[in-house]
Amino acid sequence: MLFSLENLQFGYKGEVLLDNVSMSLSEGERVGLIGGNGEGKTTLIKLILGNLSPDRGSVFRKSGARIGWLEQTGGFDSDRTVFEEMRSVFAREEEALRGLRDVENAIAALRGGRESAAAADGHADEYAALAAKYERLNRFIAATDAYHYEVRIRTVLNGMGFEKDYDRVIHTMSGGEKTRLKFCKLLLEQPELLILDEPTNHLDIQTLFWLEDYLAGYKGALLVVSHDRYFLDKVVQKIVELENRHLQEYKGNYSRYKVLKAERLAAWQKEYEKQQAQIAHMQEYVDKNLVRASTTKMAQSRRTALEKMDLIEKPYTPPAPPRFHFTYAEKPYENVLNVEDLTLCAGEKTLFSHGNAALRRGDKCALVGANGTGKSTFVKEIVRGGRREIALGRLVKIAYYDQENSNLRPSATVLEELWGRHVRQSQTDIRAALARAGLGAEDADKPVCALSGGERAKLALAVFEAEHGNFLVLDEPTNHLDLPARESLENALKAFDGTVLFVSHDRYFIRAVADKIIALGPQGMRQFSGGYEEFLAAEKRETGEKKETAPSSGEEKNKDKDAFKGRRDRAEEAKKRLRMREIEKEIGALEEEEARLTQEIADPAVAADYKSLQQKCARLQEIKCRSDALYEEYETLL
Predict the structure, then answer these.
(1) Per residue in 417-472, pLDDT tens?
(2) What is the spatial distance between Cα 538 and Cα 533, in angstroms, rounded to a whole number?
(3) 67 strand-pairing partners
């Protein structure tokens, strides 16, 4: 058991956030913690960590347990480079490797080049001490896989998108990059419990796939707070929902939770209604028969039964999620957007060249790609207009949702922000629009700068909806939205009969809404017809198969040349796969020999045979060097 909470209560400024909460998490468990914005998920984490103390109840934490916590804005500053910071995680491993080399040198110096063990009899005690130290160091190195710590660093940094940033100084990075880098460090530290608060923020889709695969092999326990439903489906095995100050557990991933919760609420509602009907029937009998002499005793008996009845609590009805409805006044022509031979730059950096894409009326298109490929820059060019390579169709009216919500005035109140854009509407209509977006009467007089991230996103969506565009362009619209709000936005966009182009890293959202994909990447701009699953399948086929290059002319000579090139590529690929299998087999054999030699060195009889000990130490060093070379070669073949 890593931690347990028993009958926990916690409040803030007189408001109870957690009431009689109990929860536990054991070694190796993978739990998703979900709940609406402001329900208290981060507060619960701080109670688990001991950063807050409960008003009532108890918190148990395993003594000495190593817990790593990634906060939503959990970056750090350092004057080190990226690789130096990651190496600091393995200070003990580096010290052990240095110590092992020192022991090997000491044994060699003690022998002084003499061939017989008898010549070193005068140093028997010193040899024994060195052999014991060597054995201890080797056990630690084997247990921590210290020889390959640099491979582990490269694996994590490359997977998290830092493959070109090893030598960058950390304090020069953006906040999002620093948060990702702290995540890398936590993954390398491998704590017994890894607590992740919105870990998918700042990650592009390719990195998310890598992270899911990496966490599948993670040996520690996971507690994940996330609004990324696809991520929760892939990573966790249990959902804990914080709702109305209480916790409820559901076995399975997010999709399973949706089913189980619906079944639980339906059964609860049925039992509640059944009991209420029974109570009403019994109360009616009491009311009619209590004053009658012949039935008084029976009526009193039923009244007593009513008083002793364990009442079923009425099922909690959560606040209604925001409701969005997108409309427009005028239908555009069939061709909504045409991009032809577009080159897009950011400063001196060329993001992509010769990009081509087209959207027709009614298309719902997701714009995907790794961070830095130009997604936000591209949508801003569309909205800004003026580029001859980007043509909008007749009668197209764009409504734009900016992920930074930079169009909102910080000093204005919520009511002023929306009403100031639509002064001809009544205040009643404006308040009703805000209420549909999830902003009630108590929010209307708040200044925009005082809103939470989720509230600000809802206000921005209310403003966006009121623009009545027939071409909706959205940049990361699900940022800061809780799960009910995301699902509401999904449903509204699916029901919209106009054209939608959106940037998102939320794969569940993309899968639900998009029927076309535009991908930005090393190969430039590519458009795919079909939804997200078809796009992934096409990407997998493209990366998994080497296709022959089409002839550039009709000449038979070029066809033959290209056909030969295709055969040569396949032959090279087969040769590469064969070499990878050979390397895997050799590394396995070396690891077995390393384990056997380490065990033999620990034997006191071997420690007394100085010549044999020196030979085994030398062989272990050879194995280490050979393994490093093989790992490096293997990386080049991937």
Answers:
(1) 999 999 889 999 999 999 999 999 999 999 999 988 889 999 999 999 999 999 99
(2) 9
(3) 193
User: Which pLDDT score, from 0 to 100, does residue 549 have?
Assistant: 41
Cβ atoms of residues 158 and 148 within 8 Å: no
Measure the CA–CA gap between 529 and 46, rounded to whole angstroms.
Answer: 46
Quote the tokens at residue 262: 């619906």
Tokens, residue 156: 């994590």
From 76, 199, 92, select the one nearest 137 (Cα to Cα): 92
**Nearest 5°: CA angle at 97, between 94 and 99?**
110
pLDDT value, residue 560:
45
Query: Alpha-carbon distance 82 to 156, whole Å?
Result: 12
Query: What is the C-alpha separation between 564 and 313, in angstroms, rounded?
Result: 75
What is the separation, in whole angstroms, between the first and last Cα of the chain? 39
CA 128 to CA 90: how far, in whole Å? Answer: 28
- Name the nearest CA neighbour of 637 among 575, 553, 586: 575
Q: What CA–CA distances, in Å, run from 295 to 287, 291, 298?
A: 11, 8, 5
Place of tokens 């500053």: 77
Distance CA 591, CA 581 (A): 15
DSSP symbols for 239-284: EEEEETTEEEEEES-HHHHHHHHHHHHHHHHHHHHHHHHHHHHHHH
- Token pair, residue 540, equals 């997998």
Q: Considering only CA atoms, which of 613, 486, 526, 483 is closest in space to residue 129? A: 613
H/E stretch holding 143? helix 124-144
DSSP label at 420? T
Helix, strand, coil tally for the chain in percent (to 5): 50, 20, 30
Res 159: pLDDT: 93
Low-confidence ranges of the chain (pLDDT < 50): 114-120, 546-565
**Nearest CA to 364 among 474, 233, 228, 223?**
474
CB atoms near residue 382 (< 10 Å): 19
Tokens of 623: 């194995």
The label of the residue with tokens 């009544």 reads 426
Q: Which residue in the block uniquely carries the two structure tokens 């910080």?
A: 410
Helices within 160-240 (DSSP H only) = 175-189, 205-216, 229-235
Nearest to 381 by CA among 364, 398, 406, 366: 398
Quote the CA–CA distance of 638 and 449 in Å, as a whole number. 49
Q: Strand 67-70 relative to strand 221-225: parallel, antiparallel, unpaired?
A: unpaired
